[in-house]
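User: For a benchmark we're assembling, each entry needs the component sequences followed by a predicted structure for the full assembly. Here are entry 17's components. Please fill in the structure.
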Amino acid sequence: MKASSLCSLLILLCATSLAAHAARVLPTPAEKTTAEQCGACHIPYPAQMLPARSWQKLLSDLSHHFGEDASLSDQDRAAVTGYLTTHAGDGLAGGREGERFMQGLSSSATPLRITDTPYWRRRHSEIPQRRFSDPRVKTAANCGACHNGRRGILWGLFDDD
Amino acid sequence: MRPWIIASALLCVALTSEAAPAGRDSVLAMLATQARQTTASFAGFSADRGRSFWTSTHTGGNPDTRSCTACHTQDPHAVGQTRAGKSIQPMAVSSNPERFTDPEKVEQWFTRNCKTVLGRECTPVEKGDVITYLATQ
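Assistant: Structure for entry 17:
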């Protein structure tokens, strides 16, 4: 009886820590405006994946956002900038995951694409280019095409929609 | 005394928001007011003009997205896709009744997408025509 209780407890602990890990690796922005506005066109990328200076630069020119006008009202832009810079990889609330995403990034570099960070490149170095241009994926910006928990990719689940 | 003041204030807020413009008809009415101011010959919105605008290839914007249909597809009832691979719910009102009912959303998305596709803002007539077209779909 005791042994089986202990076993259940261990299984529960393992499951909880796995679930917590997946959630911790790529947290969806908790701030409503960020999740809604950024998430309208693409996955609301976790703030931790870029340094604060990158978010500042991106948010300062939303009318030229990778070939699209993504302008926001001043009020929404302030909310999004506040959230993203605080939770940025090097932000006050970036945490340990943020530190991980900042690995190898030069302090003089201000990447505007997550795919330009050394950490992302290292983690995806073995994925051939044709995987990203596959019509089902379309672009490397479409994280959720692969990180959806359906194809055996355990790490980095995106909690989208 | 005080609870009455609070109750009256709440009632006022409720009445004001009830009376505030909401819904597709008021969005169209607002655009019609703007259209009369900017276009002297304005005589109402046209679904046909809207369809033509929606399906036309435009210049002046991002060459990757030269038509509304580039992301929204040729079928307004279909689910579209953004350049970043995110799905876009149908624009046809019969498939998605919430379309064009929130004035802020309408303004935000016309502003963004017209600049992306045409490199300029759309006129009130163009916006009203497109909504009128999609409301018949």
